[in-house]
Structure formats: C-alpha cells, structure tokens
Amino acid sequence: MSEQIPAQGQVPDPIEPGQLPDAEIAPPSRSHQVLREIVTGNALISVLAVVLALLVGAILIALTDKDVQAASGYFFSRPGDLLKAVWDSASGAYSALFQGSIYNFKRPGFADGIRPLTDTLTFATPLIAAGLGVALAFRVGLFNIGGRGQMLVAAGAAGYVGFAWQLPFGIHLIVAVIAGMLAGAIWGGLVGLLKARTGAHEVIVTIMLNYVGFYLISYLLRTPGALQAPGSTNPKSPPMLDTAVFPDLFGPKYNLHLGFVFAIAATIFVWFLINRSNLGFQFRAVGENPNAAKVAGIKVKNIYVYAMLLSGALVGLAGVAQVLGTVTSGFSAGIDAGIGFDAITVALLGRSKPIGVFFAGILFGALKAGGYSMQAAQGVPIDIVLVVQSLIVLFIAAPPLVRAIFRLPSPGTSVKPRTPVTSARKAEVSK
Predict the structure, then answer these.
(1) Could you write out the DSSP letters of every residue in 129-178?
(2) How high is the pLDDT of residue 415?
(3) What is the pLDDT of residue 278?
(4) What letter does residue 24 receive in the DSSP assignment?
(5) pTM: predicted TM-score of the whole model, two decimal places
(6) pLDDT at 34
(7) Which of 172, 89, 177, 170 is nearest to 378 (CA)?
(8) What is the C-alpha to C-alpha distance for residues 270 and 276, in angstroms, rounded to an integer?
C-alpha cells in the first residue's frame, strides 16, 4: 500500500521515536479480545459483587463477635490477639456456612456429608423458578415485583387440588402443578393486560395485587369448605395427599424433591424461549426499544401480556414447589416466605439470563441453608445473611464502584497491541 503524501504546506503529525503510524497498528489478537470480554463482562462483575459482599459480611461478623470485642480492649498491648480473634470469627462463621450448605466434614461418610448440598438445592428450587419469572419480565423491560401475590394464588390453587381432589398417582401431581402455574399466569397476566390496555405501570399494579392475593388467600384459609382444614379454627389448609406431593429424588434421607427437576426444566425452557424462538426475539426487541420494535411490526401490547403470563406462570411454579414439596403438611398465608422479593435479587445477580439465574438461585439457597448452621455453630446473627444479600444487590447496582475497587477497565475501552518495531524502522522514523 502506498503511503499518503501530505499536501503542499501541510505539516504531518510528529511521530514519537519507537512509535508506528496508525496504519501499521496490528489488530488485537483473539486471546486479547477474549480476555477483554472477561474482564469487562457482567459475569465477572456479579462474581466480584458476591466477593465484596462476603468481605463486608466478614467485617460485620467480626464486629458482633464477643472475643473480638474483648481483644480490642487491649489492642495496643497485644495486637496479635485482635487479629487472631477477627480471623477465627470470620473463618469459623464461613466454615460453618460451607458445612451447612455444601458439605459437612464432621459427619461420617460421604452420604451424610453431602446432605447439606441437597438442603441447598431444596431452598434454591423456588428461588430459581421465581427468579426466572422476574428475569423474563426484565428482558421485556417490565419490573415484576408481584412475586408474592403470584406465589400465593398459585399455592392456593395447587394446594386445593392437592388435598381436595382424588386422582391417580402421577396424574394428580401433574394436574396440581398445572393448576398452580395457571393461577400464577392469570395473576401475572392481569398486570400485562392492564399495562397494555390502560398504560398502568406494572410496579404499582403488582404491588397492589400482592395485597389482594395475600388477603384473598387469608380469607380462603379462614373459610370452611374453601382452603381451611375441616374442623380447624386455624387459618391453615389440610395436608396434601400423598399422590400430589413431589417425590424425593434420593429417598427420604435427603430433602431434595422432584421440584428441583422442574426448576431445571424451567431454566432450559426460558433459555430456549429467549435465545432460540421467534417470541423470544420479540421479547428482547421490546425490552431494548419498544418504539423501534413497534416500527418493525411487533405488537408491543401483546408482548407485554405474553411476557407477564409466562412470568406469572414461572413465579407460580415457585409457589407450587413450596406447597407440594416443602410445606406438605398444610400451608398458611406465609407460604411465600419472602421468596417473591428474593427472586428480584436472584434475577439481578443472574443478569436476567437463565443460566445466571440458575446459579444465583443456588447461591442464595446456600446462604439460606448455611445461615442457620452459622448461627447455631458460631452464634452469628441470622440477619448477617440478609445484610450480605442486600450488599450483593448494592454492588450489582453499582458496577462502576466494583470496577473502581478492583481497577477493572470500563466496557468499550481497549488497548490495541502494537507490532514490534524493527531497528531499520526505528532508524527511518528517527530521520
């Protein structure tokens, strides 16, 4: 390629010794691009947000420890005692968290030691399902904060089928699951319909429907012949029939039930829907820019309804997992257990991607399962787990803060590697 000759009277830009013109800058290599994508990607930010939250949680654990408080009184005479107490407090708490959620080394045999992992997966099952529902709404640009109401009506429908209908084994469970998911879909679809037809904001509508769902289920649980157990004065349902209960995957020794398989299937379904289907493409298009999607011929109002129907059905699956897999002896109005709101955190941590939501749900399930062991073994307040969850949300919502702490480059910035300069080229440039 011939070099461009500057026009008469035009002075070319000076070239620093050892620097090549822009025309001879080599494009970044493939490995350099992959490394740049990893460093600036959202997945790394999510991981670092968890690490930061655990570090801050360790500081809070140390501050609430009595041995640390006692050693701080004579810090200047023996500072090593304080450092040792801080380390023992934080490491002991997180060791108890690990043994209560992943593997307990104190139990004899691998079969007994792995039981905490099954508890984690059991806690994660409704979180994954509800997180997928919230994440699906996020991809369409909707904020589904009505997980509590959708879970409650789904639990009410599935629970009623579970204890009131006499059906054969296998069919009974499938009918109960479908009934719960349909109830959640209808409850979520109301939000999409109101937004599409009246322009009502989904956040306001879902919050209102949370209260409607709670008081509706509370009323039915106090009404004989509806959801209340016969002959009981407590607002509680009868126990589920054996034919409508999720069977255990690995026997009664472990708590993990078939609901976890449903959560895996839901993850695969959402991944295929978002990434491989025409409807998923429309979801993503509306989520990126509804005006442009409308110009392209996509019926945005219909997409809002479809998205909230599917979102409500997935959140409803979480309510089904609660009533048919965890609280099978009868449920009350507190069956949602705050999962509807925790699902928002799970969806944020998973970056609204099915695989990310799946692992984020397992992480939060581990925090729930190990939090009780941490409290029992070390006396750490269970509220520390809630603080860690809140900090995860805080750091995820502030990616620039995480990048500043770990000195990560911002997305879109790149340093182009230059080709090595030969001695002949250096001599030519220096002339």
Answers:
(1) HHHHHHHHHHHTT-----HHHHHHHHHHHHHHHHHH----TTHHHHHHHH
(2) 46
(3) 95
(4) G
(5) 0.84
(6) 47
(7) 89
(8) 10
Q: Hey, which residues does 224 pair with through a beta bridge?
A: 228
Number of domains in the chain: 1
Buried b or exposed e, range 307-340, using 16+ CB within 10 angstroms: bbbbbbbbbbbbbbbbbbbbbbebbebebbbebb
In this prediction, residue 317 carries a pLDDT of 97
Asked whether residue 251 is assigned to any structural domain, the reply reads: yes
Tell me whether residue 34 is in a domain. no
Residue 358, domain CATH: 1.10.3470
The one-letter code for the residue type at 188 is G
User: Which residue positions in the chain have pLDDT lower than 50?
Assistant: 1-2, 18, 20, 22-25, 34-35, 38, 40, 415-419
Nearest to 157 by CA among 130, 190, 183: 183
Domain limits at 237?
A: 115-380
- For residue 431, give the 3-state DSSP assignment: coil
pLDDT of residue 339: 94
pLDDT of residue 410: 74
DSSP 215-266: HHHHHHHTSBTTTBPTT--SS-PPPPPGGGSPPBSS-TTS--BTHHHHHHHH
CA distance 107 to 105: 6
Quote the tokens at residue 71: 């050693």
Q: For residue 7, what are its two tokens?
A: 């026009």
- Structure token digits, residue 233: 């004065």
- Is the C-alpha dihedral spanning 166, 170, 173, 179 positive or negative? negative
Residue 119 in any domain: the answer is yes
Residue 246's contacts (CB-CB under 8 Å, 6 or more residues apart) are 173, 257, 258, 259, 321, 324, 325
Q: Is residue 363 part of a domain?
A: yes
Residue 356: the pLDDT is 93
Residues 355 and 402 sit within 8 Å (Cβ to Cβ): no
CA dihedral angle for residue 387, residue 390, residue 391, residue 393, rounded to 10 degrees: 170
Please give the Cα distance from 264 to 274 (Å, whole number).
16
